[in-house]
Amino acid sequence: MRIAELIGCTTLCDRLLLVLLLVITGASIVFVPLYLPHGGQVRIEVRNKLLYKLPISEDKTIPVVGLTVEIKGGKVRVVDADCPGKICVKQGWIDSGAIICLPNRVVITVEGTPAPPKGVDATT
Amino acid sequence: MKPKLLTAAAIVFIIALVFVFKSTVSGTPHVYKKSEIMMDTVITLTVVSNSQKKADEAIGAAFNNLRRFERNWSFFDAGSDVSAINKNAGVRPVKVSDDTFDLTKKAVEKAKWTGGAFNPAIGPAMVLWDFKNKKRPTDSQLKEVLQLLDYTQIVFNDNDSSIMLKDKGMLLDLGGIAKGYAADKTAELLKKAGMKAGIASIGGDISAWGTRPDGSPWRVGIRAPRGAPDDLAGVLSLKDLAVSTGGDYERFFIEDGIRYHHILNPATGYPARDFQSVTVVNPEGVVTDALDTGIFAMDREKALRFIKTNNLMAYLVFADGSTFTSENLRELLENR
Amino acid sequence: MQQRDKYRLALLAACAIALHGFERLIPTPIPWLRFGFANIITLITLILYGFNAALTITLIRILIGSMLTGTFLGPPFIMSLVGGIFSIAAMWAASRVRVFGPLGLSLTGALFHNLGQILAVYAVFIQNLRSVMILTPVILFIGTLTGVLNGLAVIFTMEHLKKMSDNVQNSQ
């Protein structure tokens, strides 16, 4: 029995279903990831208002009130800040958790990547 | 067995199995975290929940409640309960919200407990210091206000929950206790919303309940007073406990080699000199917050005696950099 | 059900277990890629003997199979169970419409088998919507391909059975 004969035993609806499934699933493979947020998300909030939501995978440098925030290689840092202590600049690169600049009321958080288990959950 | 019976049995079996597994295996709850800047500090709420939706709702509600606290207790906001009390010092009692009444009462209670080392009437001395612009008051300016720092002159009326400062010029300042109280109330609120574990961190005032998803206690770092902001002096393992640290590194300026910081000794109006930081652990955040300030304002001997007689859990960093850990805290503290 | 049918079902279940075990021996480039050959037997049973018979042999296959591989009551067992029930229900419903041949039924079965498993994984084990959303189309796509393979196998078998029974009838 040849393959052609086997195919001859299928109904029109069978073939329609096959084409439909292939098209839908094939298209979903391509398009679903495009519309999903990428791995880590960098949220930048100023005065408790969300200002930016950026994928951590895309390199970018953006000014945020008194700060300059750089996203590069899956990490975020504050390059420069106009506040006196510059604590946020000293914190350096992070790929999880948060950088907070109190004087400028800026909260930069990385979402979607869990914090390392050995770290602390809070600081007093 | 008839196939129909078999089908029914199989379906019941599967449904039961799925439910059993859902309740047991689904023990992969996640940690949800959100930070906002409020009450002049960073507030981070952490909860453990099986559902992101529930976690977000609970955290949102908790932040809304904290916004209400901020409106009630701000020292600077002209519309706050505290401002209303201060404006009417020596004039008339002011009716306040239940939270403000409760908090102020607790503040005076802790002031009595510490013999005035923690003082909610520190306001008149506090306003003379400007840590942002590095300005300090003169001796005579401070001396003038010292008799206004009398917390026994805060009068309560339980009937209409009103508060009055007896003397004109007195200023109520709940800054040394409000955050710990807020941590307590926030933890309570989140617990009520079904969050079985979490951390309410209001600045350095932390209330931790339950455990991490893996069953281990929460780990709370204690800042090293003279290190970089993320340097830790130790790590506490906490379960159903609150912790607060008062440090001379939080708000300060240095003039002629002398560090002037925000924890004032109510007896002199000058920054307290015997400690770099004081950490207190207790089931209640309102206790830890008031006592870190209160113990900081004591001298070394009095502080140690106070900790001993009250059997408090405390970690002290003295002015010379040496440390003390109370015996009952040693098991919870991992030194760095 | 007649005694003879019972033997046939037992035989079919044995076939399904054998295919299920055989399938595990085939190395696949992707760990969660499975051909689902046992579905060939399930579908043949469904066509020849109806819903109850198909469900019976699937339950037997999953139960015995999981005991043989040591996964009884474990996560793979739950996944097989949910997937199996879903696919039989879906294939049965599709067969009632009477527009699909074995290929269409096989595709439906594969689709719902995978959907059931994904649902079970999501509801019971991991609640990471993101990874589920990304993996689902890939799993369903591959499932469609293996569904075609199985569907053709069913057609082949059915044609063969038909010829055999024709031969038997002719010779009688």
Q: What are the SSEs and their pairings?
A:
The complex is a heterotrimer of chains A (124), B (336) and C (172).
Chain A: H1 3-8, H2 12-35, E1 41-46, E2 49-55, E3 60-64, E4 67-72, E5 75-81, H3 87-90, E6 97-101, E7 106-111, E8 122-123
Antiparallel strand pairs in A: 1-2, 1-7, 3-4, 4-5, 6-7
Chain B: H1 3-24, E1 30-38, E2 41-49, H2 52-73, H3 81-87, E3 94-95, H4 98-113, H5 123-126, H6 139-146, E4 154-157, E5 162-165, H7 178-192, E6 197-202, E7 205-209, E8 218-223, E9 232-238, E10 241-247, E11 252-255, E12 258-261, E13 275-282, H8 285-297, H9 300-309, E14 313-318, E15 323-325, E16 333-335
Antiparallel strand pairs in B: 1-2, 2-6, 3-5, 4-5, 6-7, 7-10, 8-9, 9-16, 10-13, 11-12, 13-14, 14-15
Chain C: H1 3-25, H2 38-49, H3 51-69, H4 75-97, H5 102-125, H6 129-171
Structure characterization notes:
- The complex is a heterotrimer of chains A (124), B (336) and C (172).
- Chain A contains 3 helices and 8 strands.
- Chain A is α+β, with helices and mostly antiparallel strands and 124 residues long.
- Chain A has 2 domains: 3-35; 41-111, N-utilization substance G protein NusG, insert domain (mini-chromosome maintenance (MCM) complex, domain 2).
- In chain A, the strands form 2 sheets. A 4-stranded antiparallel sheet of chain A has the order 2-1-7-6, with no helix packed on it. In chain A, strands 3-4-5 form a 3-stranded antiparallel sheet.
- Chain B is built from 9 helices and 16 strands.
- In chain B, strands 1-2-6-7-10-13-14-15 form an 8-stranded antiparallel sheet. Chain B has a 3-stranded antiparallel sheet with strand order 3-5-4, covered by helices on one side.
- In chain B, strand 14 and strand 15 (323-325) form a beta hairpin.
- In chain B, helix 2 runs antiparallel to helix 7 (178-192), helix 4 packs across helix 8 and helix 7 (178-192) runs antiparallel to helix 8 (285-297).
- Chain B is globular, with a radius of gyration of 24 Å.
- Chain C has one domain: Orthogonal Bundle (Arp2/3 complex 21 kDa subunit ARPC3).
- By secondary structure, chain C is mainly alpha-helical.
- Chain C contains 6 helices and no strands.
- Helices cover 84% and strands 0% of the residues of chain C.
- Chains in contact: A-B, A-C, B-C.
- Chains A and B meet through strand 8 of A and strand 1, strand 2, strand 7, strand 8 and strand 9 of B.
